[in-house]
Amino acid sequence: MAPILSVRQLEKTYEGGFQALKSVSLDIQKGEVFALLGPNGAGKTTLISAICGLVKPTSGTVTVGGFDIQSDFRKARQLIGLVPQEMPTAPFEIVGDSVAFSRGLFGLRPDRSKIDAILKDLTLYEKRTSQIMALSGGMKRRLLVAKALAHEPQILFLDEPTAGVDVELRHDMWRIVGRLRDTGVTIILTTHYIEEAEEMADRVGVINKGEIILVENKTELMRKLGRKVLTLTLAEPLAEIPGSLAEFDLTLSEDKHFLTYAYDTQAERTGITSLMSALAAAGIRFQDLQTDQSSLEDIFVDLVRNGEASGL
């Protein structure tokens, strides 16, 4: 199946010589949720802006539904809905009229039933006759989503959709994304909240210094790169780690009551059996043990750190 969005060798260099994007290539499949992660200044917003036709790339191509974003701008842009981090809204404008206006910008006839359906899905229907100035911050964020969905796009871009909002609204946005995915809308989001990607995404892309350094299925990424940490609760505090245990690269907690051992889940041998034997030989007893899987945040930090160390 052909991807609904295809980016090929995309580059963007601004006046002054700053290269924001470096040969970015990416395919997005219809109906998936793709999370684009990266530190501040990594190129996330520039990439989205180039895909949406808001920034002209220096070189490379972007096709949306088979339409080139530059030569077939209107057809390509018709397929895209964009929810920016911030969008100025007219405070005295009526909520329902604002969404209808966004639909009209794409040449679509007014369809009150579709607009009402969007407002209901985003819990804005009761505010449809209210002025925007009467909305709470969370409702204004939902209104941006409603405006982006007004022309029934196939792809929805969410640029930091929950930045600066409370936890309750963040979870509401997660539920909204889930419902949109169920209707077949392709969703691409940028976020600083790793738990958003972990909660919602099918695939994860990491961008750093204008380059895509990894694109992987979320589950497979965590399987490949995830580490586990074994924590042993000692029966008695340990003054120091005996030299006989040096090969295991153990860490002793500051209070001397816990030993931790990190191991690769993909390795042929974890070394845990050997560790237990070595602990017994050293006369070290423990009361309890537990294992913890590394999170997507741990993996992301390691990827960016390693990328910077290798000169990316």
UniProtKB/TrEMBL annotation:
CDD domains attached to this UniProt entry: ABC_DR_subfamily_A
Q: Would the keyword Nucleotide-binding be found if you checked this record's keyword annotation?
A: yes
Key words of the record: ATP-binding, Nucleotide-binding, Transport
Where on the tree of life does the source sit, at the highest rank? Bacteria
State the Pfam families in the record. Answer: ABC_tran (PF00005)
GO molecular function terms attached to this record: ATP binding
- Keyword Transmembrane attributed: no
Instruction: Tell me which Gene3D superfamilies the record gives.
Output: P-loop containing nucleotide triphosphate hydrolases (3.40.50.300)
User: ABC transporter domain spans which residues?
Assistant: 5-234
Which family does the entry's similarity section mention? Belongs to the ABC transporter superfamily.
Q: Which PANTHER family match?
A: ABC TRANSPORTER ATP-BINDING PROTEIN
Q: What is this protein called?
A: ABC-2 type transport system ATP-binding protein
